[in-house]
Amino acid sequence: MANNLKYNIGLDIGTSSVGWCVTDEENNIVKKSGKHLWGSRLFDEGKTAAETRTFRGVRRRTERRKNRIKYLQSMLLEDIEKVDENFIPRLQQSNLIKDDTNQFKFNLFEDEEFIDKEYYSEYPTIYHLRNALVTKDQKFDIRLVYLALHHIIKYRGNFLTKGDLSDETNAINSDLENIID
Description:
It is built from six helices and five strands. By secondary structure, it is α+β, with helices and mostly antiparallel strands. The protein has two domains: 7-42, no CATH class; 66-180, no CATH class. The strands form two sheets. Strands 1-2-5 form a three-stranded antiparallel β-sheet, with no helix packed on it. A two-stranded antiparallel sheet has the order 3-4.
């Protein structure tokens, strides 16, 4: 290309490509070393942040769920350990394969008078247990209360209320004590 040649560069910028062409003043494509000076560059289209935002939301929601369950365990741990000290470890290992567990025979209950088979025959689903806790006027095992609260908190609970919760917390604690005692 001669130094005194006047030329234009045309660009076509798209969402996933860029086209270019070098022309002279009469709109003829300029040649350099026997090749026309025109072409295009294709590339992947840009991604939106929607996918990342979805993953971030799921990650935060599961973290909040874990924290709610830990909070419930910390509230009821002392009372549960009085009845069955291995109840929480059995629950935590219930989803593992046999080789990875501490070889508990049952997932939930290991009492002589109450085992998993009896629990599932009396309460086929967690909703049967929740219904029994609400409708029957009797004293329930703290582990049954824990299972129902665990289910409610895991799938329906939230701690998004703003402000001072001390009065509400005291009321909840007294209600829990009435159920347990």
